Amino acid sequence: MEITNEVKQRIVAAIAADRENYPSDNRHATALGIAPSVYNAIKRGNYEKQVSDANWVGIARRLGVQLRTEMPWLAAQTPTYVFVSKQLEVCQGSGLSAILCDMPNIGKTFTAKAYVKQHKHAVYVDCSQVKTKLKLIRYIAKEFGVTSNGRYSDVYEDLVAYLRTIDTPLVILDEAGDLQYEAFLELKALWNATERCCGWYMMGADGLKEKINRAIEGKKVGYTEMFSRYGDSYSKVTPDDAQEREKFLKAQAAIVAKINAPDGADIAKIVHSTGGGLRRVYTEIEKLRRVQA
User: Fold this and answer.
1) CA gap 215, 226 in Å, rounded
2) Class of domain 79-229
3) Distance between CA atoms of 128 and 125, rounded to whole angstroms?
4) pTM score, two decimals?
């Protein structure tokens, strides 16, 4: 596909904003998956012939820039957003670890991605895309701007050395229940190697909790130790009671809809039609904006 100038400008703006999270241009270029020469060309604005469309697509994917015109979306201070953000701040600031297990579609992922954009030395990992040990560690290394090619042992050691060097790094592991067993064991090893130097935050739905509990009950090697390192407990945002949970979800949906829906939109109708699911809220508001366009 052809990348338009408007899209390129949005990608360049995202690169400039993301640069604040890295100590050098070279680290940032490595994290973006491009050569330093390409990075410098973009920085100088001289990218018409030097940056391929494949590079643009890769950078856009890494920074979450939509290649099509995207609907403006504001982050709402929902209970989930506030709770998760606070936990992430504590983990990063103190080199602690925690696990959040809660129902899907409440804003966990959105909050984590927003946090990473606003905080230096914090990276977000979608574990469903890097399920194996090798892919996971190489991906984390790349996100921090550490060279992820070459021998795995070198990548691992370079990553450990870097995490022990920089100030308050944080790794957010979303969809952690998708990780293979070897990847879980490697996370334990990485935690040991970076104890008190790096914060770790694992997120998932109820399946993650069941997976860990089942492994511990079955005395599967490594899980008891790993759970201990992550605080021996699971965090949760939503209420346990079904009726209270429904109220909670609809209240969140209303908060999000109020600041993102077009003027004059029926907020109660949006909340009712979505049942409190935040992805549905986005879809319904997108429909309303199309009608108004």
Assistant:
1) 11
2) alpha beta
3) 9
4) 0.88
